[in-house]
Design brief:
2 domains; D-Maltodextrin-Binding Protein, domain 2; globular; four-stranded antiparallel β-sheet
Length: 272
């Protein structure tokens, strides 16, 4: 059974629950905060010029203290914008050493990437080495996604073996899986499932997904990075204070529970 949800109703509930946070925020940003975003499951939903989802709704709820200007960009470009100081926030983002060089991280939930494929009789893959040894399996990933050093290592090795497809977004990866061009992907289940739920071309895949956690891809922090380069000290402090309040409120986890079926969250998202 597909997971049906009234996004408008959930958005109203979310904004209502966050209104108090905005009213309690003491610091006010000196300028509009530049937040380029890329489609990321139901965390960020992009339909033309319309940008919605869990994190856009949270940022907009803080509008009394800071105005956030959201723009849609490809994921790979988003990473470059943040690294070069042309993005004030990177959201959502898994915590990685590379990103720590460019921003201050505020954890919001725990997440992890897993192997994801369509259901089959294939033997379970138990480790990254096991995946590397199964040289007949093709793997697709989203260009610009990063789940830490172990993820980067496996991507490099798969590329050397000529088994890697890199595509622009999760829906494109889902279509590769559905067409049989790729056998597997590596990403957070909430991202792939969220993308599938929003695209009629691949919605029939949702109940056929197989999740295989790997020990090398452990649970880690997911949240938001505040730029060290583009913001004044005052604005950086104001954003840090507001986003820490959001983290303590528990509203992010509650939003994930409203936007996703329980079996998807079990494999990819945990509350802090």
């Amino acid at each position: 059974m597909s997971f049906q949800i009234n996004l408008r109703s959930l958005r109203i509930l979310l904004l209502s629950s966050l209104m108090l946070l905005a009213q309690q925020a003491l610091a006010v940003c000196s300028r509009a905060i530049n937040v380029p975003v890329a489609a990321t499951g139901r965390s960020v939903l992009i339909n033309g010029d319309n940008i919605e989802g869990i994190y856009p709704d949270i940022l907009r709820s803080l509008g009394e203290a800071c105005k956030f200007t959201l723009t849609a960009v490809p994921r790979a470009r988003l990473e470059l914008l943040f690294e070069t100081g042309r993005a004030d926030l990177l959201i959502p983002a898994s915590r990685t050493p590379k990103r720590d060089e460019h921003g201050i991280f505020i954890p919001l939930v725990y997440n992890r990437a897993t192997l994801i494929s369509l259901e089959s009789n294939r033997t379970v893959i138990v480790s990254m080495q096991d995946l590397l040894d199964k040289k007949d399996l093709k793997v697709a990933v989203v260009r610009g996604f990063d789940y830490g050093p172990a993820y980067q290592d496996i991507i490099k090795e798969l590329s050397k073996q000529g088994r890697l497809y890199m595509d622009a977004d999760p829906v494109s990866v889902a279509r590769l899986l559905k067409a049989g061009i790729s056998d597997l992907t590596i990403m957070a289940p909430s991202i792939l499932a969220g993308a599938i739920m929003e695209d009629a071309r691949v919605q029939d895949m949702l109940d056929k997904l197989r999740y295989e956690p790997l020990p090398e891809l452990a649970w880690g922090d997911s949240g938001v990075y505040i730029s060290k380069k583009s913001l004044s000290n005052e604005d950086r402090a104001a954003l840090k204070d507001m986003l820490e309040q959001v983290a303590k409120s528990g509203v992010v986890w509650k939003s994930f529970q409203r936007y996703y079926p329980a079996n998807v969250l079990k494999e990819s998202i945990r509350p802090r």
